[in-house]
Design a protein that fits this description.
By secondary structure, the chain is of the alpha+beta class. The chain is 55% helix and 10% strand. The chain has a four-stranded antiparallel sheet with strand order 2-1-3-4.
Length: 131
C-alpha cells in the first residue's frame, strides 16, 4: 500500500513540474517590447521592401505585426516573434535589414537576435552597430 502512495506522489510531482517551464505570454511580450525599445533608441535604420525607415518607424511597424500575430495565436517566444514577424516582409518575403551609422546593412534577424542576447544579459547594454 505504501508503494502505491509513493508511486502516486511521484507521478503527481512529475506531472505538475514540467522539465522546462515556458515563459508566460506577458513575459514574452515584455521581452519583445524591450527588444523593440532597443531598436527604437539605436539610431539605426530599418529596410523593408527596398525603403529605409527610421528605427521608431520600424518599431511601430513591428508592433503592428505583433498585434496581428497575437490576434491569431499567442507568440510563444521572442525568437518566434523574430522569425515570424521581424525578419522578412510577409508580403514579398524579402528579408528586412538594419543599418547603423556607416556600417554595412545586416539582416534584421541577425541584428535582433544579437540584441536579444543583450536584453537577456543586463550587464551588456551596448547596442550592436550603434553610433
Amino acid at each position: 500500500m505504501r508503494f502505491v502512495f509513493a508511486a502516486i506522489a511521484l507521478l503527481t510531482i512529475a506531472l505538475s513540474s514540467p522539465l522546462r517551464a515556458e515563459p508566460s505570454a506577458e513575459a514574452v511580450r515584455a521581452e519583445i517590447h524591450s527588444l523593440l525599445d532597443r531598436l527604437e533608441s539605436s539610431g539605426c535604420q530599418f529596410n523593408r521592401n527596398g525603403t529605409w525607415h527610421t528605427a521608431p518607424e520600424a518599431k511601430a511597424h513591428l508592433l503592428t505585426k505583433l498585434d496581428y500575430l497575437d490576434k491569431r495565436a499567442t507568440v510563444q517566444s521572442t525568437e518566434q516573434f523574430i522569425d515570424l514577424a521581424a525578419s522578412k516582409s510577409s508580403l514579398s518575403g524579402t528579408p528586412y535589414q538594419v543599418r547603423c551609422g556607416n556600417t554595412a546593412p545586416v539582416e534584421s534577424k541577425l541584428w535582433l537576435t544579437k540584441e536579444l542576447q543583450a536584453v537577456r544579459s543586463p550587464g551588456k547594454t551596448k547596442l550592436s552597430g550603434a553610433r
